[in-house]
Structures are given as C-alpha cells and as structure tokens.
Amino acid sequence: MGRTPRAGGNMAGAGRMSTPSSLDQSRPVFERAQRLARSLFSGVDAAVVLVDGGDAWRSNDGGGVAPKDAPVASIAVERNELIWIGDASQDPRFAERSNVKGPPYLRLYVAAPIRLEDGSVPGVFAVAGSRALAYDADLAARLQDLADFVADEWSRVQSKAARETAVRESDVAQRMVAQIIDTAPLSLLMTDTAMQVVSASPRWIESRQLIGQAVVGRSLYDLFPNSHAKWRPVYDRCLAGESVHADRVELTLPDGTVIWLQVELTPWRDGAGEIGGLIISSHDVTNMVEALERTERSEERLRLAMEIADIHVWELDYRRRELIKVGAEANFFTEPSTYEELTRDIWSTTDPRDLPDVKAAWDRHCKDGAPYRPEYRIRRSDDREVWVQGAVRYLTDEDGRPLRMVGALQNITDRKASERALVQAKEEAESATRAKSAFLATMSHEIRTPLNGVLGMAQAMAMGEVTDQQRERLDVIRQSGESLLAILNDVLDLSKIEAGKLELEQAEFDISELARGAHATFAATAQAKGLSFELKVDRAARGVYVGDSVRVRQILYNLVSNGLKFTETGGVKVAVGRKGGTLSIAVADTGIGVAPSKLASLFQKFEQADASTTRRYGGTGLGLAICRDLAELMGGGVSAESTLGEGATFTVELPLKRVAAAPSRPVPQAAEVREPVAGVAIRLLAAEDNGMNQLVLRTLLQQVGVEPVIVGNGREAVEAWSREPWDLILMDVQMPEMDGPTATGVIRARERAEGRPRTPIVALTANAMSHQVAEYLRTGMDAFVAKPIEAARLYAVIQSALERGQGAETAAA
What we know:
The chain is of the alpha+beta class. 43% of the residues lie in helices and 22% in strands.
C-alpha cells in the first residue's frame, strides 16, 4: 500500500476538503489500525492525528478537537515524511516538554504522513510510548502502510460525502432550472436522455402551437414526428457530451407553418456528473431569415443582371484597407486588381490612349459636378480590346478624408463594335448617297443639255413662219420634251427627298396669287380637252403665308395635272380653304376615279391604280408620292377620296402660319413672262461651254434681234467683261476652268474696286432648286433661267434684268 511521498503536502487544502466530524463514521476503521499499530509497537499508544490550522483532532480522544499540541505531527505533515523520535528526552526539541519530563514520560514518538490521492497531507498516523526505541526500518514501513490504509478510508469517506452533496445540489439545481424554464420569457426546453420533456417554457409551448396539450413527459419525437430522422443524430451527439449551435433550423409546425429557429443544445449533468438530458434554447429568426432570403434573392437578381449587362462593381474601403469586387472581373481585366495597386495609382487599369480624356472627365466632375460617365479602353496584357463605361462615387468624412470610393464598369465592347459598324455603314451609305446624288446631278445635266437643244430649237422654229402641219409637229416635239423633263424633275425630287437633302424655304407668299398662277398655267390644257376648270379661294383662306411657295406650287401643279390627265368629261375644281391654323387645298375631278381598296397604293412610289392606267395615261407614278413627301416635310399630309368611275378628290393640309404683312419682293422666277425684247440694240455676253447650248442660245436670242457674244467658260467671260462694257451677261453655272458663280464673284469684286457700274448677270442652270438659286444670288447674280430654256421666260428675265439695271444707273446719275 506504499505511496510515493510528495513534498509540500497541502495541509490547508485537506482541511477544506473535510471536517473532523465527518470522519466519525470511520472510527471503527481507525480503531482497527490503532490495534494493529499497538501490536507492532508493544506498550505504545496509537492515534490518527489530523492537523487543521491551530487545532488537532485525535481519534483516540474520542474525536474531539483540541488546541494543537503535536509538534511531531506538525513536522511530519509539513515535511510530508515519516518522523521517528526514538528518545524524546534526548532530543532538544522535545526534552523540556511536560509530557516528556513528567507523566506519561514519553520517549518514543513516530508519525507517518497520511497522503491523499490529490497529494495533500491532512495529518499523521502516530504511535507514542514511554519506552525508548531505536529506529527500525521494518516497523517504520509497517506504520506507513497503516497511514496509507487510513488515507484510503479518508478518500472513500470524502468521495461518498462529495457524491451525496452533489446529488443534493443537483436535485436543487434541477428544480431551480425547471422553475426558471417554467417561468422564463424565453423559448427554453429541458429533456431527459430519452428526449422526454422535463420542463418547457410558456413561450416554447406557444411558439410550437402546443398550447393546451400535455407536454411534460412526452418525447420530442412524439410531439414532432416529422423531425425524427433529422434530429435524432443531433440529439445523440449532444447526449454524448457535445454542445451544438445552429443559426438556421427549419421547423414545420402542426398546422404546416414553417418557421426558422436559432438553436442552442447543451447537455446537463446530474449530481453524479452523468448527462441527464438536454437544455434546448431557441430563438425565432423567421423574420430575419426571410429578410435574408429576400436579400439573397435580390443579390442573386443583381448578380444575374450584372452578368447579363456585363457589369463589374468595385469598392475601395480606405478605413478597412480592402477592395471589394462584385461581377465578372475576368471579362474586364487580365489580372485581378488589388487594393494596393488601385490606391497607389487609380488610373493603372486605364488604357494610356484614353487616359487624358478620362482624367479630364474626372477633373470636370470634381470641379463642376459634371456627370462622370467616361467611355474608355481597359489596359490589358493581351491584344483583346475591351471598352467600358465607368462611373465612380467618392465619399469623404466631414474633414474631407476619404472613406470609400465606389465604382462600376459596364462592358460596352459590343456596343462600340456596333457603333463602329454603324459609322462605317453610315459612311458607306453617305458615300453611296453622294455617288447617287453626283450621278443624278450629272445625268440631269447630261439629259437637260440635249433636251435644251430639242426644246430650244423647237421653240425657235415655231417662232418662224411655219405651216400648220409643221407647227403641229413642233408641238409634238415640245410636248414630248416637256414630258421627259417632268419625269426627270420627279426623279430628282424623289432622290433628294430620300437622301434628306431637300431643304424647305421659309418665305412669305400670297396663296391667292399662287392658286391663280396654277389656274393660268393649266387653263389652256383644260380648254383643249373641253373640260371646265374652276378655282375658289375662301375669304378665310386668303392672305399671306410663310412657307416654301415653290413646293406648295409643286404639290398643287401635280394634283391639277393629274386631275386633267385622268378626266375626259366634266372638269376639275380647285378649292382653297382654312380651318384653325391649317391651310387646305382640295383638287376634285370627274375622271375615272379609283377603287377605295386602291387608294392607299396611290401614294406609293412607282404605283398607279393598275397597269392599264400606266399604259393609257402614261406617267411614272411618282407625282402623288412626291406630293405626300413634300406635305409631310411641311408637317402636313395628303388624303384621297374616290369612287371608281365617278372621279376623285385629293386634299392637302398644311399647317402654315398666316401673317398680316405684305409679301416681300419675290426673287425673279422663270415663270414671270414678259414681252420679248424687241427693237433695242443690246450688248449681251453669254458664257456657255456646251456647243449645242451655245447654238440654242444664239438661235433664241437672234429671234428677238439680239446678237450675243458667246465665250466658253467663266475665265473668258471675266476677260471679255474686262475689255468692254456689257448690258447683260448670261452666265452658265457649270463650266470648265472657272464656273459661273466664281466668275460672277470676280466681276462683282472688280466692279467695287474699279468703280464700274454693276452689270446684270443672269444664271443659266439645270440646277434650279430654291436653295441653289439662293446661293447663286448670294454670289452676285441677279436672276436665273432654268434649263431647258423656255424662250418666253428667257426673254422676260432679260427684259426685267435690263430694266433693273437701267433703274440703278438712273438712280446713280
């Protein structure tokens, strides 16, 4: 039974572990040990001596506590070793003690330390006698064995007492826990090892929808049968000593409602230290979980949207010194960005080619608050070009120190590619349009040149003495040429409209004069077909309007021309009215009419009611389409009403502003017909590069007694003007070496520099659009005559120009 001595035994600790009175139940054991000791040491007394502070307890004193008077015992306890005093009278430490000098005249005293399992030494097992005895190792060992025997009894008593105390305390604690759970405002549950409910808080019962049911004594598997498979492994782990924490636990209640719980499962132990069951605390986190799920769904939608939109979002947190990134970074950068990289140089990811523009945009944003939405390329280590549109928000504290910088990048590479493709397509389309326009202009010039010869010579011949048969033939030539010219004009107008090159002028014009002009122009045609031709301008519609009179006239002429073309009997009526701010022009005829199902197609390009109409009446089918396009350009429209065989009515509505002021002096138009020049010697210089046109011009002028001097280009015209004065110059626009407008500019400049009188200059041009005419007038020309040249108009313009020139000279004189 020997025990290994441990120096420095804890005497005080032993005193705290037990009290002497608790060892009374061990007295029979101690007495047995004492009898054995007395048999080993003849004539001695034996006792268990416990030392506690200043007191000592002796088993042979009936277990009473008395003041400590056992120096040998104290030494043995302190040293944790057996002490053998063979003759106390010879030991200076004890010789003078009363029980040594006097009765009972102690000589022998041996004390063996009582060593407990925890290493403490609460006392000794001692023998004492009046007969001296030298040290005997065998007796010393036997005495130590008896001391160890006493120590074992001590431990047994202590363990039993501890268990009994623990059981009592456990019972008390369990009752207290149950009372706490029963009254706690929390969701708490206490079970035994069979997972039967020992105690449940009201909130737990209520939250599980178990109000009014017997809960205590029932198993959780019985209360929640659907949770058996899921929760048994968890309960088993906890019953084995593990504590479990779960943040999100799904629980289906008896009515089918699903709630989410935060759960803590902890095993509780009884007085013997054995696990007695579980304490389960739970907190309803359904609202939090649902909010989190909504957030997660929102984040998922955001991630999906960012993925679809190819967006990368980043945030520099200067306080935490971290870079947060969301989105497909790999779609933008070849290498992931880092916090250190971006804080060192925020522009490090920008392509150097775009860096100046991006920095300038940032400077404007910081200075003026201008929107920061730059588009630039990303710096990459490969050859792939990635375009992004950036946005940044920079946040600072009250002192201006940076807090965060949040930025977003959207991949616009595909959009940029599309833009480049669109630009290229636009450039190609514009190039094609320019080529088309140039081709049409060239074709117009080339077609008008022979037409000028045909019509000019036909007019010249008709002005001479011809027979009726010859005049009839000349009329056929003239009408054919004019028809061809009308087709050419339609095609050119259509091409300009489609190319968006047709510009409308805004000038004042008198609608009554415009309508009367149309009536005068077509009256002869109506008379020749035996048709009536009526014109009515409502009083409410009369007055001066602001708009493009040339295009309004073109629309009216087209509609009247169509009405007369498709009418064999009856007549055509033109009615001009005004309602609100809209000018309306209606042209009604009694012609062949159109089936209602065909009306919509009338305004389509190259469309007529049917093929037989084209064969019978001719035409390109462009007139009404041009009318519609012109009306729409002016903000209006064209509509049609018709009954097959009963005629048709076409109505144009134009939102033109009517003004009270009189119309400004109109630009001389080719339609102004004046008396031919006669009996006046005119010094006329003509600049024309085409030989056929020169012949036509000479022939027409000779018919009225004018012998022109003709040169081949603008440079020669300037030289001729420099040599001698001229009454009038006819200036072709397109000529080699120097064109007409340039030559006119040179002449006007020299007139001002040399003080020469202004020479009237009339443009000869196949390009007689209003904006073109305006450009000619800005260069210094005074009037124009359109090609093919109509003789009467040529004469009238010459006469008008001469009169204005003479008036200017008179005023100067």
